[in-house]
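Lab notebook, bench 4. The sequencing result for the construct came back, and we need a structural model before the next group meeting so we can plan mutations. Quick request posted to the team channel:

Model the 3D structure of this chain.
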Amino acid sequence: MKTRNIQLDVAKGLCLILMIGGHTKGIDPGLHHFIYSFHMPAFFVIAGMTYMESQSPKTDLVWSKFKRLIIPAWIFGAINGLPFLMRLLRGVIDKSEFFHRFIGTFTGAAQVNDTFNCTPLWFLYAVFLVYLFEIVTSRLLQPRTRFALLLAILLLLFINPWAYQAFAPMQLKYALTGILFFQVGVLLKERMNPPQSGHHYFLLSISFIVWIGLASFAPTVQLNSGFLGTGGQILLSFFAALAGVFFIIQLAHILSDLPYLPLLAQISLPIVGLNYLVEQRLNPYIEGMALFVIEAMILILIASLTVKTGPVGRLLNGRI
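Done. Here's the predicted structure in token form:
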């Protein structure tokens, strides 16, 4: 039976809140930049740190991840598509636009114009592809080969032979950077011992300074398009992201006694899936920090209620 790591659950919960903030219309551009410098890489690093190898058949493992991630992504895609279906029936949009968004939504597109305005779902597709890669190649991935793979991806992004070209599928771009940070998480899992009591605040301060310093000069990271920058910027973005991840994990250690924050990690799918839909309904009336606070409260309330709806709630949270 897998035991949950409370500190990593708290870190994931903090990143979920940052995700809502990063998607909030009217948020300060500087704050947006710093959020994006590490919050999505952190999700992949945490996924790597919590990944447990299994002796189950590979087909069973793939099916398990498919049920956990892709089926909920399709359900939330359909929910987000309802307003577009109504627009189609009223003649506001034509069939070609509807089916373009339909295909994008159910294949993991990561741009607003290619989906039912539910691009946060790209993350669920990305994590599935990362797990798929891990399951298929697990016998080959020992610590040395993982490190070599990490360096190979960085080199590939650095020399940039095709990673950002138009013909490369978007899913391949975000899967590539997802695999990069996932491997970091797996490598850190066995090496990152919890700091001694009393050292959290010191490490928190150091990691915060390093993160802010590096992120101040790095480009805005866009993992939904596999973008870490170009040339030497890639290494700057990579290390800024790692410093930010280390900072949020240290902060999670300090906040791990809070009663509800760890639970956000267990109801993350509805928050991701309904993020843009809730914001669309609120944004005509408010924006900025007010929008962020109210939207976060509504999303967390909805996600919390899903766990009380039996089979439907389990389906929405990928627990079938």
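The chain has 13 helices and no strands.
Will bring this to the meeting.
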